Amino acid sequence: MKIKAQELRELVQYSMLGLTMIIVVLLINNVFTIAHEFCPYSTVCFGAMSLNPNFSTLLFPIAVILGLIIAISAIFWGRRFCGYVCPFGTVQELIYNLNPRSKKAKQYQLPKWLHRLFNIFKYIVFFITISTALRIIQYGYMKFCPVLAVSHPQNITLYSAITLFMIFVVGYFLNRFWCRYLCPYAALMNLFQYIGRLLHIKSSRIQASEDNCINCKHAPIAVPCR
């Protein structure tokens, strides 16, 4: 039996979400000790740190290399990682689907000027994380890290609680709020996509037009908005 594209996407999404939940449970029970070993954004948080001459050790090489490979893949396939693999994206979709408005043909969206303004924020977060990593003070940023908040809930802080509020509560009203406006890894993948366009590398990424979008319920959703 042939699997439809959306069914395949959901199969991958929920499989990865299930795997993530297993890893989180193992982290909470101290079977695994450090969440960064599994986080692709370690490419910036700890990969950039190793560029500092005062700290040349690469702490989490597998996570850094894998995260870099995923980011580079955005050149050829767009942000499919966000649409298929990222557990935060999947959870946000599930939460947003609980909102009755999500079933309506015309869903609530931010005004275009506000969307474009908010769209800058993830690049600011990315700049902050890479700057702090280069200076080996990224642990200040990590107070807001959702990965640490979920995998080590015993150490949750007010700062990480604010981040989780943005993901799980604001995400109920605005689909993938974190992915669209705050996720620094999304910013990194967008930068790689921009490099790909400069080099005229052919990409299978779906290019959405904000001006022509009619919010069609049948539009492909594997690649989130920028």
Textual characterization of the structure:
With 226 residues, the chain is mainly α. The protein has one domain (5-198). It is 55% helix and 0% strand. The protein is built from twelve helices and no strands. It has helices spanning 5-28, 42-45, 61-77, 80-85, 87-97, 112-118, 121-134, 146-151, 158-168, 170-173, 177-181, 184-198. The relative contact order is 0.16. Residues 217-225 have low confidence and may be disordered.
Structure summarized in a few sentences:
With 226 residues, this protein is an all-alpha fold.
Helical content, roughly?
40-55%
Regions with pLDDT < 50 over 5+ consecutive residues? 217-225
Strand content: under 5%
Q: N- to C-terminal separation?
A: 34 Å
Number of separate strands: 0
Domain count: the total is 1
Major β-sheet, in short? none
Distinctive features:
disordered C terminus; mainly alpha; 0% strand; 226 residues; 12 helices
Which helices and strands appear, and what pairs or packs with what?
Elements: H1 5-28, H2 42-45, H3 61-77, H4 80-85, H5 87-97, H6 112-118, H7 121-134, H8 146-151, H9 158-168, H10 170-173, H11 177-181, H12 184-198
